[in-house]
Write a structure and sequence with these properties.
The complex is a heterotrimer of chains A (349), B (586) and C (364). Chain A has 13 helices and 10 strands. By secondary structure, chain A is an alpha/beta fold. In chain A, strands 1, 2, 3, 4, 5, 6, 7, 8, 9 and 10 form a 10-stranded mixed beta sheet that branches. Chain B is mainly alpha-helical and 586 residues long. Chain B folds into 2 domains: 245 residues, Orthogonal Bundle (MetI-like fold); 220 residues, MetI-like fold (Orthogonal Bundle), CATH 1.10.3720. In chain B, 70% of the residues lie in helices and 0% in strands. Chain B contains 25 helices and no strands. The chains are: A alpha/beta (349), B mainly alpha (586), C alpha+beta (364). Chains B and C meet through helix 20 and helix 21 of B and strand 6, strand 7, helix 2 and helix 4 of C. The structure holds adenosine-5'-diphosphate and magnesium ion. Magnesium ion (MG) binds next to helix 1 of chain C.
Chain lengths: 349, 586, 364
C-alpha cells in the first residue's frame, strides 16, 4: 500500500528534484481568455462539471457563483470532500465501481500521488495551455491553493511585545503547557524542505518539551486559542480566520521560512467532462479564479498576482516538498507524526 | 396462513418416519437470513476481503496477510488495546450504573416528576458527540473549564480539581453520553416487570440495596447483559469523545488509530486494509460477548417477568427516600443533561469559542441561528434528515421485533447465527460500512440510483442500528411468557395476528425505545452521512459538519441546538399520542 | 372425538434416552372429561401441547373429530390456529394490555366472528363464568380466581370441539380450587364439550374426570375410570399416586379362581382383586379408609388382625391412626364417631375385596 508505482517519465524533466525553496514571487506565464473560452464551449456540451474539493459548501457556492458569472453556459457542481484521505478512497471506489467520478479534484500531492500510482490521473501538458511551470510542477498537478502555517497567539493573554514571531520563539520555555498544535506534522515536514530533516527533528524535540496540546484539526486549535485554553499555537492561516472574523482575540504571524501545504487540481482519467475539468483547474489558476477562490475559502494561491496569500508570503522563503518528492517526504512525515504523538507531550493525569 | 400441509407421501421404506415437516421450519430462517445477509453479511464479507488486500480496497488485486501483521505487530499495539479496554470497560460500567439507577427510579418508583424526567433524560442523545465533547471540554478543561474555575474559586484551591483531558475524563464523558442509550435499553425491561417480584423481596425484609442486587439485577440480567455487551462494543468503536478529549493528552485508543488509518494516514490514501484488520479484533470481542450472553441467559424461562397473571402495574413507594432519590436524580440531571446542553446553547450564542463569563455575555449574538436558517440547503437537509430518520427508525424497529421474535420465541434453526449477524454491525467502523455500501450500490443495479441518494444513508443506518434494536427487542422478548402468545394461537389467531395484537402491544415500550433511539441517532449521525454523501443527499448533520469543519463550531452548535429541539418535538408528539391513546382506552 | 396414537417427543435429540413423551396413545370420546394425571415432568403438558399444535411431536398421529391434525407418516401438521381446540394455560396467559372483554373477544376476532353474534357469545361466556360485571376491567386488575375465569371464558367462547386445560387450578388457593373444580365440571357438562385436563393433583383428577390416564416418565401407565383406578389400580405407581396407600410386599401362597391367599408382613391375608398376570414382584395395597375397626371381636378369622394404636391424628371429620401389627405399621382412617386412644389394643378387618394386589415393589 505504501509502495507506489509511479509513472515518472513525464515530470522528471519538469520537477527540479530539489525542494521548492524559492522566495515567493508571482508566476509569469498566464492562461489566456481564448484558451478558457474554447474549453468552456466544449465543456458546456459535455454536461456539468463535477468537482471534488474539501471546502464547506457555502464557501464553494461563492466560487461557483463567480465561475458561472464568467462561464454562464457551463454548470459546475461541487461534492464536498471530507478531508484527509477520503477523496482518494472515493475516487478509487468510483473508478472500480464504474460509476461517474469527478471531472476535477483538488487535493494534496500525497493524495493525488496515490491516484497517479493507480493510473487514475490524466497527464496534461499544462505549459501548452499557458500555465507557468511553477504552477504545474508535474503533468498531473496544477497548483490551486496552499495552506500557510502561521504562529498564533491570544492577544488578550500575550502582549504584543511577548508575542512569538519566529519558529525559535515558539520553542521558548515560557510557553510550556501553553502551546498547542495540530497532531499532524505537515507544516513541520514542509519546513524540512528548507531546514533539512535533522534540524526540524531537533526542533520538534524542543516543541515536545513544551508539553503541547495536540488537536486533531487546526480549526478547534484556533477556537481553543481564542477561548484561552492555549496561549500560543502553530496553526494554519485560513483556519484561524473564522474566529478572527468574529472578533476573537487572535494574533497571526507568518514565520520565515514560511511552511506551506499546497493543494493541486488534478483530472481523473475516468472523468466524463475532461474539458470541463481542465477549464476549472485553469480558471482557478487565473487571477480572477484564484481571487474568487481565496475570498471564499480564506486560502489562496501564492503564485498568482493579487491574492492575499501572495501578499502574506511576499519576501519570505517558501518551504515545501514538490509533488514528485512525495516518496521522500512520506517517511519524514511519518517520523514527525510519531515524534509529535509519542514524544514528551502531556501525560495522562 | 397455511391450512393443512399435506405433502405427497412418497413410497417410504416401512418403519422409516419421513420428516417433510422440517424444511418448512427453515423458511423463516431463510427469509430473515436473506434480509440480514443483504444488510449485514455483504458488508462484513467485503470488510474481510478488504483486510486481505494489499491495496486495502476490496476490488484491488492480490491477497495478503500483511495488514494483520502490520496492525497487530505494531510496537504500541498491546498498550493501545490496554487503554482501549480500560476506556471501554470504565465507560460501560459508568453508563450501566447510572442507567440502571435511573431506569429503576423512573419506571418503578414514585419518584416526583417521573414523566418529565423520563422525557428529558434522553435529550443529550440528539447532540452530535463532537459537540458534546467540546461542551464537556468547556466545562471541565483544567484551564478554562467552567466547573473547574467555579470549584477552584469557591474552595480557594490552587489547582483545578478536574482534568477532562485524561483517561478518567474520557470515561466520564463517554459514560455520561451513553446513559440515555442505557436508559432506553433498560426502561422497557423495568417497566415490564411484575411488581409482585419486588414486593415479595421487600416483604421478605430486603432493603433497597439488596432488592437491586438480589432481585432486580438477576431478574433483568438478559437486558442488562445485552446493554452491557452493546455499550462495550460502542465504546471500542466510538471516536469523537476519545478523539477530542484523548488526543490533546496523547491518549490513544483503537478508534483513534482507525481514524488515523482511514482519514489521516500520511500515505494519501485510506488504509482500509489495516482498518479492516483492526475491525476484526472488534468482531472477535463482539462474538465472545455474544457467546457469553447466550451462555449466561440460556435458561430463558427464569427471566419471564411478563406473565399472564397478577400483573398489576404498581409503583414502589420510596417513602422518606423519595426526596433523597429526587435530589440524586436532579444532581445527575443538572450535571449530565442541563450542563452540556446549556454549554451547547451558550456556544451557539457566541461568535467564537469563549469561556463562560459575565463579560462574555456582551458577545451574545443570534447570528449562528440566523445563519443556519438562512442556509439555502436547510429545508432540503431537514426534509432529508426527517425522511432518513423516520424510515430508518421504522425499518429498524420492524426488523428488530421480527428478528427478536424469530430468535427468542420461534427458535428457528440457525437462530443464534442470525442473532450474531444482527449484532455484528456495531463492531464495524462506520468507514468500512460506508466503503462496503458504496461497492454494493455501485455494482448492484436496482434500476434506480441508490448511491449518492438519501437511501444509501438510510440503508447504512438501518444496518448499523439493527444491532441496537435487536439487543433491546431480545431482552424484552425474553421477558414475555410464551403462553401469552400461545394462547393467541390457541384462540385461532394466525401468527401475524398474534404478533400484531399480542406480541407487539406487550413489547410496545421497547418498540418505542428503539424508534426514538434510532430517530435521535439518525438525526445526529455524522460520519456515515459524510462518507456516503453525494450531490443530492445533504442532511442536517452534513450542514453541521460544514460549519464545524469550516472552523465554525459556534454555528455547528446552533445546528446542534436545533437537533435537540427536533428531538424534543418528536418526544412531545409521542407523549401526546400516547396520552390520547391512553385516554381513549380508559 | 380425539385420537392420539404413538406420540413421541424428544426435546433433546442429542441424548438417546431423553424422551419427554414416548409412545403415548389414547382415545377420548365426544363429551368426555379426560384427564392426564402424573407427577411433574412426566410429559403431560407436552402431550397436551402436542394436541394443541404448540409442539410438533417427533412421530405419532393425532386426529380431532376424525380429521388428522398431525401425522408424522403423512407429514401433516395443521397449525394451532386451524385446529378446533381451545386452551386454558397454567399461567392463565391473560393479555395484560386488554380488558376482560377484549381478552374474551379475541378468539372471535381471530375467527372473523363479529357483530351481534360475537356480542352474544361474549356475553354468554362472561355470564357462564360469572364475570359480566367485570367485563370492562383491565385484565390484570383481577384476583387470581377471576383471572382464571377470564381464561376459561376465553376458551369456551370459541366453542371448540376440544377444550384443553393445563393445570388451570394449580395457582388458586385450596378453597377456591375446590369451588372452581365443581364449577368446571358443571360447565363442561353444560356445554357438552370434550375436555382434556392436565393435573398432578389426584383429588382434582378423581372428582372431575370420566377417565384418567396416569402418566409416568413420558408414558401412560394406566388408563381407566376414577373408580377403577382408585379401587383396582394395577401398579404400585398408580396405587401410590392416586389416593393414600399402604403398600406391603406380598407373595402368592395359593391361587384360587376368584381369590388369592397371600403371605404378607402382617401375616396371611386374602385378596379378591388382582391382576390377570401374576409375574414379578407384587405388593398388597390397602387404603387406610378401607380398614375397619372390629371392636370387641377377637383377632381371628380371615383378614382379621390384632394391633396396638401407636399414634392418633385428629383432624375433625376424620381420625387417622397408626396401628402396630406385629412388625408392620398400618395407617387406618375412621370417622370421629368412636375414638381410640394411643396404646389401645384394637382388632382390624381388611376386607378381601379391598385388598388389591398390584404389580411392583412395595418399597420403591
Ligand atoms: N421446552 C423444553 N425443552 C426441553 N425440555 C423440555 C421442554 N419442555 C419440557 N421439557 C422436558 O420434558 C419433560 C416433560 O415435560 P412436561 O411435559 O412439561 O411435563 P409435565 O407437564 O408433566 O410436568 C420434562 O422432563 C421436561 O423437563
Ligand atoms: Mg406441566
Amino acid at each position: 500500500m505504501t509502495r507506489m508505482n509511479l509513472d515518472r517519465r513525464g515530470f522528471l524533466a519538469v520537477a527540479a528534484g530539489a525542494a521548492l525553496a524559492g522566495v515567493a514571487q508571482p508566476a509569469r506565464a498566464a492562461v489566456t481568455d481564448d484558451t478558457l473560452n474554447q474549453l468552456a464551449a466544449s465543456a458546456a456540451r459535455a454536461g456539468s462539471i463535477l468537482w471534488y474539493e474539501s471546502s464547506p459548501r457555502d464557501q464553494i457556492d461563492r466560487v461557483i457563483a463567480a465561475f458561472t458569472q464568467r462561464f454562464p453556459a457551463v454548470r459546475l457542481e461541487h461534492v464536498r470532500d471530507t478531508g484527509g484521505n477520503a477523496m482518494a478512497g472515493r475516487v478509487i471506489q468510483e473508478v472500480q465501481g464504474n460509476t461517474r467520478t469527478c471531472d476535477v479534484g483538488t487535493n494534496s500531492a500525497s493524495v493525488i500521488w496515490q491516484l497517479v500510482g493507480r493510473n487514475m490521473v490524466e497527464r496534461v501538458d499544462w505549459a501548452a495551455r499557458g500555465a507557468d511551470a511553477r504552477l504545474a510542477p508535474t503533468p498531473f498537478t496544477l497548483l490551486t491553493t496552499a495552506s500557510t502555517y502561521v504562529i498564533l497567539s491570544n492577544s488578550r493573554m500575550v502582549s504584543d511585545a511577548d508575542a512569538p514571531r519566529t519558529w525559535e520563539d515558539l520553542a521558548n520555555p515560557r510557553w510550556r503547557e501553553k502551546f498547542g498544535t495540530w497532531i499532524r506534522s505537515e507544516g513541520l515536514t514542509s519546513l524540512a524542505a528548507v531546514w533539512g530533516e535533522d534540524r526540524v527533528a531537533r526542533y520538534i524535540e524542543q516543541l515536545n518539551a513544551q508539553r503541547p496540546f495536540l488537536f486533531k484539526s487546526t480549526f478547534p486549535l484556533a477556537q481553543q486559542l481564542a477561548a484561552g485554553e492555549v496561549a500560543v499555537a502553530l496553526g494554519i492561516y485560513h483556519t484561524a480566520q473564522p474566529p478572527i472574523r468574529r472578533g476573537a482575540p487572535i494574533r497571526v504571524t507568518v514565520p520565515d521560512p514560511a511552511a506551506i501545504s499546497s493543494l493541486f487540481s488534478f483530472l481523473p482519467t475516468a472523468g466524463r467532462n475532461k474539458d470541463g475539468g481542465l477549464l476549472l483547474a485553469l480558471w482557478l489558476a487565473t487571477p480572477g479564479g484564484a481571487q474568487a477562490y481565496e475570498q471564499a475559502t480564506g486560502r489562496g494561491n501564492y503564485l498568482i498576482e493579487g491574492t492575499e496569500t501572495a501578499r502574506l508570503l511576499a519576501g519570505r522563503t517558501v518551504a515545501e516538498f514538490t509533488p514528485d518528492q512525495t516518496e521522500r517526504m512520506l517517511p519524514i512525515l511519518t517520523r514527525f507524526n510519531n515524534m509529535l504523538q509519542n514524544g514528551g507531550g502531556r501525560e495522562v493525569d | 396462513m397455511r391450512t393443512i400441509e399435506a405433502l405427497p407421501a412418497q413410497s417410504a421404506a416401512p418403519g422409516e418416519v419421513k420428516r417433510p415437516i422440517a424444511w418448512a421450519r427453515w423458511l423463516p430462517a431463510i427469509g430473515a437470513g436473506a434480509v440480514l445477509a443483504y444488510l449485514v453479511l455483504v458488508p462484513l464479507l467485503l470488510m474481510l476481503v478488504s483486510s486481505l488486500r494489499p491495496g486495502g480496497f476490496p476490488l484491488d488485486p492480490g491477497w495478503t496477510f500483511a495488514n494483520y501483521a502490520t496492525v497487530y505487530g505494531a510496537a504500541g499495539f498491546p498498550r493501545l488495546v490496554g487503554t482501549t479496554i480500560a476506556f471501554a470497560i470504565g465507560s460501560t460500567a459508568l453508563a450501566l450504573a447510572l442507567g440502571i439507577a435511573l431506569a429503576w427510579l423512573i419506571e418503578r418508583t414514585d419518584l416526583p416528576l417521573r414523566g418529565t424526567i423520563r422525557a428529558l433524560v434522553i435529550l443529550p442523545m440528539a447532540t452530535p458527540p463532537i459537540l458534546l465533547a467540546i461542551g464537556w471540554a468547556m466545562l471541565l478543561s483544567p484551564r478554562t473549564g467552567f466547573f473547574n474555575l467555579l470549584i477552584r474559586d469557591v474552595f480557594g484551591l490552587a489547582q483545578s480539581p478536574f482534568n477532562v483531558f485524561s483517561l478518567g475524563g474520557m470515561i466520564f464523558v463517554e459514560g455520561l453520553s451513553l446513559v440515555p442509550t442505557t436508559f432506553l435499553f433498560l426502561s422497557p425491561a423495568f417497566r415490564n416487570m411484575d411488581p409482585s417480584l419486588e414486593e415479595a423481596a421487600i416483604t421478605s425484609g430486603a432493603g433497597i440495596g439488596m432488592l437491586l442486587r438480589r432481585i432486580l439485577l438477576p431478574m433483568l440480567w438478559p437486558s442488562i447483559l445485552a446493554a452491557g455487551a452493546f455499550l462495550l462494543i460502542v465504546c471500542l468503536v466510538v471516536f469523537d469523545i476519545p478523539g477530542t478529549l484523548g488526543m490533546p493528552a496523547r491518549i490513544f485508543v483503537l478508534s483513534t488509530q482507525i481514524y488515523y488509518l482511514a482519514v489521516d494516514s500520511p500515505t494519501g490514501v485510506p488504509l482500509y486494509g489495516q482498518v479492516s484488520a483492526l475491525a476484526a479484533f472488534f468482531l472477535c470481542i463482539l462474538f465472545v460477548l455474544g457467546w457469553a450472553y447466550h451462555r449466561l441467559t440460556r435458561q430463558a424461562q427464569r427471566y419471564r417477568t411478563i406473565t399472564g397473571k397478577g400483573f398489576r402495574p404498581r409503583l414502589m413507594r420510596l417513602g422518606g427516600w423519595r426526596w433523597v432519590a429526587f435530589a440524586g436524580v436532579s444532581a445527575y440531571f443538572l450535571l449530565a443533561v442541563v450542563a452540556p446542553l446549556a454549554i451547547l446553547f451558550w456556544t451557539s450564542l457566541m461568535p467564537y469559542q469563549t469561556r463562560v463569563t459575565w463579560a462574555a455575555l456582551d458577545l451574545v449574538t443570534l447570528d449562528n441561528h440566523i445563519d443556519f436558517f438562512a442556509n439555502r440547503r436547510v429545508l432540503e437537509a431537514a426534509g432529508n434528515s426527517l425522511t432518513v430518520a423516520l424510515v430508518a427508525a421504522t425499518a429498524v424497529a420492524l426488523i428488530s421485533v421480527v428478528l427478536a421474535w424469530l430468535v427468542v420465541r420461534a427458535k428457528i434453526p440457525g437462530a443464534r447465527l442470525l442473532d450474531g449477524l444482527a449484532f455484528a454491525p456495531v463492531a464495524m467502523p462506520g468507514v468500512m460500512l460506508g466503503v462496503a455500501l458504496v461497492y454494493v450500490y455501485l455494482t448492484l443495479d436496482l434500476g434506480f440510483a441508490v448511491y449518492g441518494t438519501i437511501w444509501i444513508i438510510a440503508i447504512a443506518y438501518v444496518t448499523h442500528y439493527v444491532s441496537f434494536g435487536t439487543r433491546l427487542a431480545n431482552g424484552v422478548m425474553v421477558q414475555l411468557h410464551p403462553e401469552l402468545e400461545e394462547a393467541g394461537a390457541a384462540s385461532g389467531a394466525s401468527t401475524v395476528r398474534v404478533l400484531r395484537r399480542i406480541t407487539l402491544p406487550l413489547i410496545w415500550p421497547a418498540v418505542v425505545a428503539i424508534w426514538i433511539w434510532v430517530v435521535a441517532h439518525a438525526l445526529r449521525e455524522l460520519s456515515t452521512a459524510l462518507m456516503l454523501q453525494g450531490r443530492g443527499n445533504v442532511v442536517v448533520p452534513t450542514l453541521l459538519w460544514d460549519y464545524w469543519s469550516g472552523g465554525e463550531p459556534n454555528r455547528a452548535a446552533a445546528v446542534g441546538v436545533w437537533l435537540v429541539v427536533a428531538l424534543v418535538i418528536f418526544l412531545s408528539l409521542w407523549q401526546a399520542v400516547a396520552r390520547s391513546r391512553l385516554e381513549r382506552s380508559s | 372425538m380425539l385420537t392420539v396414537s404413538g406420540l413421541v417427543k424428544r426435546y433433546d435429540t442429542r441424548r438417546a434416552d431423553a424422551f419427554a413423551v414416548r409412545a403415548v396413545s389414547f382415545d377420548v370420546a365426544q363429551g368426555e372429561f379426560f384427564t392426564l394425571l402424573g407427577p411433574s415432568g412426566c410429559g403431560k403438558t407436552t402431550t397436551l401441547r402436542s394436541v394443541a399444535g404448540l409442539e410438533t411431536p417427533d412421530s405419532g398421529e393425532i386426529a380431532i373429530d376424525g380429521v388428522s391434525v398431525f401425522s408424522s407418516a403423512k407429514g401433516t401438521v395443521v397449525p394451532v390456529a386451524k385446529r378446533d381446540i381451545a386452551m386454558v394455560f397454567q399461567s392463565y396467559a391473560i393479555w395484560p394490555h386488554m380488558t376482560v372483554r377484549e381478552n374474551v373477544a379475541f378468539p372471535l376476532e381471530a375467527m372473523g366472528v363479529n357483530g351481534a353474534e360475537a356480542k352474544r357469545r361474549i356475553e354468554s361466556a362472561l355470564s357462564i363464568v360469572g364475570l359480566t360485571a367485570f367485563a370492562d376491567r383491565p385484565a390484570p386488575m383481577l384476583s387470581g380466581g377471576q383471572q382464571q375465569r377470564v381464561a376459561l371464558a376465553r376458551a369456551i367462547v370459541k366453542q371448540a370441539k376440544v377444550l384443553l386445560l393445563d393445570e388451570p387450578l394449580s395457582n388458586l388457593d385450596a378453597k377456591l380450587r375446590e369451588q372452581m373444580r365443581v364449577e368446571l365440571r358443571d360447565l363442561q357438562r353444560r356445554i357438552g364439550t370434550t375436555a382434556i385436563y392436565v393435573t398432578h393433583d389426584q383429588d382434582e383428577a378423581l372428582s372431575l374426570s370420566d377417565r384418567i390416564a396416569v402418566m409416568k416418565d413420558g408414558a401412560i401407565v394406566e388408563l381407566d375410570t376414577p373408580q377403577a383406578l382408585y379401587l383396582r389400580p394395577r401398579t404400585t405407581f398408580t396405587a401410590r399416586f392416586v389416593g393414600q396407600a399402604d403398600l406391603l410386599p406380598c407373595t402368592v401362597v395359593e391361587r384360587g379362581a376368584d381369590r388369592l391367599a397371600l403371605d404378607t408382613p402382617l401375616g396371611p391375608l386374602h385378596s379378591t382383586v388382582f391382576p390377570p398376570g401374576l409375574d414379578g414382584t407384587l405388593a398388597l395395597l390397602v387404603r387406610p379408609e378401607h380398614i375397619e375397626f372390629r371392636d370387641g371381636e377377637a383377632a381371628f378369622g380371615r383378614n382379621m388382625l390384632g394391633g396396638v394404636v401407636q399414634r392418633v391424628l385428629f383432624s375433625g371429620r376424620l381420625v387417622e391412626y397408626v396401628v402396630q401389627v406385629g412388625a408392620a405399621a398400618l395407617r387406618v382412617q375412621a370417622t370421629s364417631r368412636s375414638l381410640k386412644a394411643e396404646g389401645d389394643r384394637v382388632t382390624l378387618h381388611l376386607p378381601p375385596e379391598r385388598c388389591v394386589v398390584v404389580a411392583g415393589d412395595a418399597d420403591s
